Protein backbone atom coordinates (compact mmCIF):
# COMPACT_ATOMS: atom_id res chain seq x y z
CA UNK A 1 0.00 0.00 0.00
CA UNK A 2 1.77 3.20 -1.14
CA UNK A 3 2.23 6.20 1.13
CA UNK A 4 0.11 8.49 -1.09
CA UNK A 5 -2.81 6.14 -0.77
CA UNK A 6 -2.31 6.01 2.99
CA UNK A 7 -2.24 9.79 3.18
CA UNK A 8 -5.69 9.95 1.60
CA UNK A 9 -7.30 7.65 4.13
CA UNK A 10 -10.31 9.36 5.69
CA UNK A 11 -10.15 10.29 9.36
CA UNK A 12 -13.19 11.11 11.47
CA UNK A 13 -13.47 13.14 14.64
CA UNK A 14 -15.83 15.16 16.74
CA UNK A 15 -15.22 18.82 17.42
CA UNK A 16 -16.82 20.93 20.14
CA UNK A 17 -17.12 24.66 19.66
CA UNK A 18 -18.46 27.51 21.77
CA UNK A 19 -20.48 30.22 20.18
CA UNK A 20 -22.37 33.23 21.45
CA UNK A 21 -25.85 34.38 20.59
CA UNK A 22 -26.36 38.07 21.33
CA UNK A 23 -29.58 39.96 21.76
CA UNK A 24 -29.90 43.69 22.28
CA UNK A 25 -32.79 45.14 24.23
CA UNK A 26 -33.62 47.96 26.55
CA UNK A 27 -34.69 46.65 29.92
CA UNK A 28 -38.29 47.43 30.63
CA UNK A 29 -39.31 50.04 33.14
CA UNK A 30 -40.32 48.70 36.54
CA UNK A 31 -43.67 46.85 36.49
CA UNK A 32 -45.06 49.24 39.12
CA UNK A 33 -44.44 52.31 36.94
CA UNK A 34 -45.76 50.55 33.87
CA UNK A 35 -48.91 49.53 35.76
CA UNK A 36 -49.38 53.08 36.99
CA UNK A 37 -49.30 54.22 33.37
CA UNK A 38 -51.85 51.60 32.41
CA UNK A 39 -49.50 49.57 30.19
CA UNK A 40 -48.72 46.00 31.11
CA UNK A 41 -44.98 45.41 30.87
CA UNK A 42 -45.36 41.85 29.59
CA UNK A 43 -48.22 42.45 27.14
CA UNK A 44 -47.06 42.40 23.51
CA UNK A 45 -47.80 45.55 21.52
CA UNK A 46 -51.14 45.50 19.77
CA UNK A 47 -52.10 47.69 16.82
CA UNK A 48 -55.73 48.74 16.36
CA UNK A 49 -57.48 50.92 13.81
CA UNK A 50 -59.44 53.54 15.75
CA UNK A 51 -62.39 55.59 14.49
CA UNK A 52 -62.90 58.88 16.32
CA UNK A 53 -66.01 59.15 18.47
CA UNK A 54 -68.43 62.09 18.53
CA UNK A 55 -66.09 64.36 20.47
CA UNK A 56 -63.44 64.00 17.77
CA UNK A 57 -65.66 64.69 14.76
CA UNK A 58 -65.04 67.79 12.66
CA UNK A 59 -67.34 70.56 11.53
CA UNK A 60 -68.15 68.63 8.32
CA UNK A 61 -69.21 65.62 10.45
CA UNK A 62 -66.19 63.55 9.42
CA UNK A 63 -64.34 61.81 12.24
CA UNK A 64 -60.58 61.15 12.25
CA UNK A 65 -59.00 57.71 12.27
CA UNK A 66 -55.67 56.72 13.81
CA UNK A 67 -53.64 53.67 14.80
CA UNK A 68 -53.40 52.72 18.46
CA UNK A 69 -50.10 51.05 19.45
CA UNK A 70 -49.93 49.88 23.06
CA UNK A 71 -47.77 47.28 24.80
CA UNK A 72 -44.26 45.85 24.83
CA UNK A 73 -42.15 45.88 21.66
CA UNK A 74 -41.30 42.28 20.73
CA UNK A 75 -39.25 40.77 17.92
CA UNK A 76 -42.41 40.16 15.87
CA UNK A 77 -43.93 43.62 16.45
CA UNK A 78 -42.64 45.04 13.11
CA UNK A 79 -44.53 42.29 11.30
CA UNK A 80 -47.74 43.27 13.13
CA UNK A 81 -47.17 46.92 12.21
CA UNK A 82 -46.74 46.04 8.55
CA UNK A 83 -49.93 44.00 8.70
CA UNK A 84 -52.10 46.91 9.88
CA UNK A 85 -50.42 49.32 7.44
CA UNK A 86 -51.33 46.92 4.64
CA UNK A 87 -54.87 46.84 6.01
CA UNK A 88 -55.31 50.65 5.82
CA UNK A 89 -53.71 50.90 2.36
CA UNK A 90 -52.43 54.29 1.27
CA UNK A 91 -54.04 56.23 4.13
CA UNK A 92 -51.48 58.16 6.16
CA UNK A 93 -52.94 57.72 9.63
CA UNK A 94 -51.16 59.00 12.74
CA UNK A 95 -49.96 56.56 15.40
CA UNK A 96 -50.77 57.00 19.09
CA UNK A 97 -48.28 54.95 21.12
CA UNK A 98 -47.80 53.97 24.75
CA UNK A 99 -45.11 51.40 25.53
CA UNK A 100 -42.74 50.45 28.38
CA UNK A 101 -40.08 49.46 25.83
CA UNK A 102 -38.70 46.17 24.60
CA UNK A 103 -36.58 44.99 21.69
CA UNK A 104 -34.21 47.66 20.31
CA UNK A 105 -33.77 46.12 16.86
CA UNK A 106 -37.54 45.81 16.41
CA UNK A 107 -38.09 49.41 17.56
CA UNK A 108 -35.57 50.74 15.04
CA UNK A 109 -37.07 48.61 12.28
CA UNK A 110 -40.53 50.04 13.01
CA UNK A 111 -39.11 53.56 12.98
CA UNK A 112 -37.77 52.99 9.48
CA UNK A 113 -41.13 51.57 8.37
CA UNK A 114 -43.18 54.57 9.52
CA UNK A 115 -40.59 57.05 8.22
CA UNK A 116 -40.80 55.43 4.79
CA UNK A 117 -44.61 55.76 4.95
CA UNK A 118 -44.26 59.38 6.21
CA UNK A 119 -46.49 58.77 9.23
CA UNK A 120 -46.73 60.97 12.32
CA UNK A 121 -46.73 59.75 15.92
CA UNK A 122 -47.78 60.91 19.38
CA UNK A 123 -47.23 59.54 22.87
CA UNK A 124 -50.73 58.82 24.08
CA UNK A 125 -53.43 56.25 24.68
CA UNK A 126 -56.88 55.50 23.32
CA UNK A 127 -60.09 55.20 25.30
CA UNK A 128 -63.44 53.79 24.20
CA UNK A 129 -66.72 54.93 25.73
CA UNK A 130 -67.79 51.28 25.76
CA UNK A 131 -65.03 50.35 28.24
CA UNK A 132 -64.59 50.92 31.98
CA UNK A 133 -62.20 53.65 33.09
CA UNK A 134 -59.61 51.15 34.35
CA UNK A 135 -59.53 49.38 30.96
CA UNK A 136 -59.56 52.03 28.21
CA UNK A 137 -59.61 49.42 25.45
CA UNK A 138 -61.71 46.34 26.21
CA UNK A 139 -62.98 43.41 24.18
CA UNK A 140 -66.54 44.76 24.31
CA UNK A 141 -65.46 47.76 22.23
CA UNK A 142 -63.90 45.75 19.40
CA UNK A 143 -65.84 45.58 16.17
CA UNK A 144 -65.95 42.44 14.03
CA UNK A 145 -63.14 43.78 11.84
CA UNK A 146 -60.95 44.40 14.91
CA UNK A 147 -61.31 48.19 14.88
CA UNK A 148 -62.74 50.31 17.69
CA UNK A 149 -64.32 53.71 18.25
CA UNK A 150 -62.43 55.85 20.70
CA UNK A 151 -60.81 59.07 21.81
CA UNK A 152 -57.10 59.81 22.35
CA UNK A 153 -55.78 61.00 25.69
CA UNK A 154 -52.31 61.78 27.00
CA UNK A 155 -52.46 61.54 30.79
CA UNK A 156 -50.40 58.60 32.03
CA UNK A 157 -49.17 57.48 28.60
CA UNK A 158 -45.52 56.40 28.50
CA UNK A 159 -42.82 55.87 25.89
CA UNK A 160 -39.81 54.38 27.67
CA UNK A 161 -36.67 52.39 26.88
CA UNK A 162 -36.78 51.22 23.25
CA UNK A 163 -40.04 53.08 22.56
CA UNK A 164 -38.37 56.49 21.87
CA UNK A 165 -36.42 54.80 19.05
CA UNK A 166 -39.72 53.73 17.47
CA UNK A 167 -41.14 57.19 18.20
CA UNK A 168 -38.18 58.79 16.37
CA UNK A 169 -39.48 57.42 13.07
CA UNK A 170 -42.47 59.78 12.88
CA UNK A 171 -42.24 62.73 10.50
CA UNK A 172 -44.15 64.72 13.13
CA UNK A 173 -43.53 63.68 16.73
CA UNK A 174 -45.44 65.09 19.69
CA UNK A 175 -45.80 64.36 23.39
CA UNK A 176 -47.99 66.19 25.90
CA UNK A 177 -46.55 67.35 29.25
CA UNK A 178 -48.95 64.78 30.75
CA UNK A 179 -47.27 61.92 28.83
CA UNK A 180 -43.82 60.58 29.72
CA UNK A 181 -40.81 60.10 27.42
CA UNK A 182 -37.85 58.32 29.00
CA UNK A 183 -34.60 56.55 28.16
CA UNK A 184 -31.89 54.48 29.82
CA UNK A 185 -28.92 52.27 28.94
CA UNK A 186 -29.10 49.61 26.30
CA UNK A 187 -28.58 46.14 27.71
CA UNK A 188 -26.95 43.48 25.55
CA UNK A 189 -27.56 39.85 26.53
CA UNK A 190 -24.91 37.28 25.61
CA UNK A 191 -26.05 33.65 25.67
CA UNK A 192 -23.35 30.97 25.67
CA UNK A 193 -24.24 27.74 23.89
CA UNK A 194 -22.01 24.68 23.59
CA UNK A 195 -22.43 23.16 20.13
CA UNK A 196 -21.04 19.73 19.19
CA UNK A 197 -20.26 18.88 15.57
CA UNK A 198 -19.22 15.71 13.79
CA UNK A 199 -16.69 16.64 11.15
CA UNK A 200 -15.46 14.27 8.46
CA UNK A 201 -12.24 15.09 6.71
CA UNK A 202 -9.44 13.49 4.74
CA UNK A 203 -5.71 14.03 4.66
CA UNK A 204 -4.37 15.15 1.29
CA UNK A 205 -0.62 15.58 1.02
CA UNK A 206 -0.41 16.08 4.76
CA UNK A 207 -3.18 18.70 4.83
CA UNK A 208 -6.64 18.19 6.29
CA UNK A 209 -9.58 18.73 3.90
CA UNK A 210 -13.10 18.92 5.40
CA UNK A 211 -15.60 16.67 3.60
CA UNK A 212 -18.68 17.29 5.77
CA UNK A 213 -19.69 18.97 9.01
CA UNK A 214 -22.90 18.12 10.90
CA UNK A 215 -24.24 19.42 14.21
CA UNK A 216 -24.97 16.56 16.58
CA UNK A 217 -25.95 18.43 19.73
CA UNK A 218 -26.05 21.70 21.65
CA UNK A 219 -26.33 22.68 25.28
CA UNK A 220 -27.14 26.02 26.87
CA UNK A 221 -24.27 26.98 29.18
CA UNK A 222 -25.37 30.36 30.56
CA UNK A 223 -25.84 34.02 29.79
CA UNK A 224 -24.86 37.42 31.05
CA UNK A 225 -25.92 41.02 30.48
CA UNK A 226 -23.82 44.09 29.84
CA UNK A 227 -24.59 47.75 29.29
CA UNK A 228 -21.30 48.45 27.52
CA UNK A 229 -21.67 49.31 23.84
CA UNK A 230 -18.80 48.55 21.52
CA UNK A 231 -17.79 51.08 18.85
CA UNK A 232 -19.85 49.37 16.16
CA UNK A 233 -23.02 49.31 18.29
CA UNK A 234 -22.63 52.96 19.26
CA UNK A 235 -21.94 53.97 15.65
CA UNK A 236 -25.12 52.20 14.48
CA UNK A 237 -27.18 53.97 17.14
CA UNK A 238 -25.75 57.39 16.28
CA UNK A 239 -26.24 56.77 12.55
CA UNK A 240 -29.87 55.78 13.18
CA UNK A 241 -30.59 58.98 15.14
CA UNK A 242 -28.88 61.09 12.47
CA UNK A 243 -31.12 59.58 9.79
CA UNK A 244 -34.22 60.15 11.93
CA UNK A 245 -33.25 63.80 12.48
CA UNK A 246 -32.81 63.39 16.26
CA UNK A 247 -29.89 65.02 18.07
CA UNK A 248 -27.19 62.46 18.85
CA UNK A 249 -26.93 63.94 22.37
CA UNK A 250 -29.78 61.56 23.17
CA UNK A 251 -27.19 58.75 23.18
CA UNK A 252 -25.36 60.40 26.11
CA UNK A 253 -28.63 60.58 28.07
CA UNK A 254 -29.23 56.90 27.42
CA UNK A 255 -25.73 55.80 28.38
CA UNK A 256 -25.73 57.98 31.49
CA UNK A 257 -28.83 56.35 33.01
CA UNK A 258 -28.69 52.98 34.79
CA UNK A 259 -30.84 50.25 33.18
CA UNK A 260 -33.00 49.93 36.30
CA UNK A 261 -33.84 53.65 36.14
CA UNK A 262 -35.41 56.02 33.63
CA UNK A 263 -34.32 59.49 32.58
CA UNK A 264 -37.55 61.39 32.03
CA UNK A 265 -37.10 63.90 29.22
CA UNK A 266 -38.92 67.20 29.89
CA UNK A 267 -41.07 68.53 27.06
CA UNK A 268 -38.76 71.44 26.22
CA UNK A 269 -35.65 69.25 26.31
CA UNK A 270 -37.30 66.76 23.97
CA UNK A 271 -37.93 69.65 21.61
CA UNK A 272 -34.30 70.83 21.79
CA UNK A 273 -33.12 67.27 21.10
CA UNK A 274 -35.50 67.17 18.13
CA UNK A 275 -37.02 64.01 19.61
CA UNK A 276 -40.29 65.91 19.32
CA UNK A 277 -40.93 68.26 16.42
CA UNK A 278 -43.32 70.72 18.10
CA UNK A 279 -45.40 71.38 21.21
CA UNK A 280 -48.66 69.48 20.71
CA UNK A 281 -50.39 66.36 21.99
CA UNK A 282 -52.11 63.20 20.74
CA UNK A 283 -55.50 64.88 20.55
CA UNK A 284 -54.16 67.66 18.31
CA UNK A 285 -52.34 65.18 16.08
CA UNK A 286 -55.39 63.04 15.34
CA UNK A 287 -57.53 66.17 14.87
CA UNK A 288 -55.15 67.67 12.31
CA UNK A 289 -56.23 67.43 8.72
CA UNK A 290 -54.46 67.87 5.40
CA UNK A 291 -51.27 69.18 7.00
CA UNK A 292 -48.80 70.35 4.39
CA UNK A 293 -45.11 69.54 4.62
CA UNK A 294 -43.39 71.62 7.33
CA UNK A 295 -46.77 72.98 8.51
CA UNK A 296 -47.29 72.85 12.27
CA UNK A 297 -50.04 70.66 13.64
CA UNK A 298 -51.71 73.60 15.40
CA UNK A 299 -52.08 75.37 12.04
CA UNK A 300 -54.00 72.54 10.42
CA UNK A 301 -56.13 71.21 13.26
CA UNK A 302 -59.70 71.02 12.01
CA UNK A 303 -62.10 73.08 14.15
CA UNK A 304 -64.74 71.18 16.14
CA UNK A 305 -68.41 71.49 15.17
CA UNK A 306 -69.74 74.93 16.03
CA UNK A 307 -72.05 74.99 19.04
CA UNK A 308 -75.56 76.18 18.30
CA UNK A 309 -76.25 79.71 19.60
CA UNK A 310 -79.58 79.90 21.47
CA UNK A 311 -82.02 82.34 19.91
CA UNK A 312 -83.33 85.26 21.98
CA UNK A 313 -86.14 87.73 21.49
CA UNK A 314 -84.72 90.28 23.91
CA UNK A 315 -84.28 93.71 22.28
CA UNK A 316 -80.76 95.06 21.95
CA UNK A 317 -80.25 98.49 23.49
CA UNK A 318 -77.33 100.81 23.98
CA UNK A 319 -77.88 101.29 27.71
CA UNK A 320 -75.06 103.17 29.46
CA UNK A 321 -72.66 101.00 31.52
CA UNK A 322 -72.66 101.59 35.27
CA UNK A 323 -69.41 102.49 36.99
CA UNK A 324 -69.34 99.12 38.74
CA UNK A 325 -69.72 97.31 35.39
CA UNK A 326 -67.02 99.46 33.88
CA UNK A 327 -64.59 98.57 36.68
CA UNK A 328 -65.34 94.84 36.25
CA UNK A 329 -64.68 95.04 32.55
CA UNK A 330 -61.15 96.46 32.96
Descriptive account of the structure:
The structure is a single chain. This protein is of the alpha/beta class and 330 residues long. It has one domain: 2-enoyl-CoA Hydratase, Chain A, domain 1 (Alpha-Beta Complex). 25% of the residues lie in helices and 28% in strands. The protein has helices at 3-7, 31-36, 77-88, 104-116, 163-167, 231-244, 249-255, 267-272, 282-287, 323-329; strands at 10-25, 46-52, 65-70, 95-98, 121-123, 125-127, 148-153, 158-159, 173-175, 180-183, 187-204, 207-226, 263-264. The chain has a seven-stranded mixed beta sheet with strand order 6-7-2-3-4-5-9. A three-stranded antiparallel beta sheet has the order 1-11-12, with no helix packed on it. It has a three-stranded mixed beta sheet with strand order 8-10-13. Strand 11 (187-204) and strand 12 form a beta hairpin. Helix 3 runs parallel beside helix 4 (104-116). The longest helix has 14 residues, at 231-244.
**Structural class, please?**
alpha/beta
Measure the end-to-end span. 119 Å
- Total domain units: 1
Strand content: 25-35%
Q: State the strand order across the main sheet.
A: 6-7-2-3-4-5-9
* Oligomer status: single chain
Helical percentage = 10-25%
Average pLDDT metric: 81
What string gives the helices and strands in order? HEHEEHEHEEEEHEEEEHHEHHH
CATH superfamily annotation: 2-enoyl-CoA Hydratase, Chain A, domain 1
**CATH architecture assignment:** Alpha-Beta Complex
CATH class: Alpha Beta
Poorly predicted regions are 1-38, 311-330
